[in-house]
Specification:
Shape: elongated
Largest sheet: 4 strands, antiparallel
Radius of gyration: 19 Å
Oligomer: single chain
Helix content: 55-70%
Number of domains: 1
Length: 160
């Protein structure tokens, strides 16, 4: 398998389009970053990812329970020092370019917090897509099983 490169377009706060390309992390880097994320938000991350629903294949296509995801993000932010949050963001972006140029964090994202988080979500999706999609499918299967069990119970109750 080869390391994938993906490109996505984002719009900044002034309506200007920017092309962001990113390479997947090597597996050792992906595991190290995953450990940081898991340590920071642990159970909230599992709850947030299990709540993802959608027909798309990506994190950005999913229907997200904003409260659950918000709790996970708050926990991540609370677990990091301000410097740690900047370092984690920069680490996530180290294989990315914006408009074909190396990212200069303080220049490219100053005044662009929303775009920063959209780009970070893109990088997380690129590196952990199989994990996110697997959790979405597992959650959908669990929800379907619950609905079927509920329908079966309702049917047996009405036949009594």
């Amino acid at each position: 398998m080869a390391i994938k490169n993906e490109v996505r377009n984002f719009t900044d706060s002034e309506g200007e389009a920017h092309s962001v390309s990113s390479y997947q992390f090597q597996i050792s880097e992906a595991l190290e970053v995953w450990k940081i994320l898991a340590d920071a938000i642990g159970p909230s991350m599992a709850t947030a990812f299990a709540s993802l629903k959608g027909d798309g294949d990506g994190l950005l296509d999913a229907n997200v329970d904003a409260v659950v995801l918000g709790d996970a993000v708050r926990q991540l932010l609370a677990s990091q020092t301000p410097k740690g949050l900047v370092e984690l963001s920069q680490r996530l972006l180290k294989t990315s370019k914006i408009d074909g140029k190396e990212i200069v964090f303080e220049i490219n994202f100053s005044g662009e917090m929303l775009m920063l988080f959209e780009v970070l979500a893109f990088v997380l999706e690129l590196n952990y897509k199989d994990f996110f999609v697997g959790l979405m499918r597992k959650a959908q299967a669990s929800e379907l099983a619950t609905k079927m069990a509920t329908a079966k119970l309702s049917a047996s109750d009405s036949s009594d």
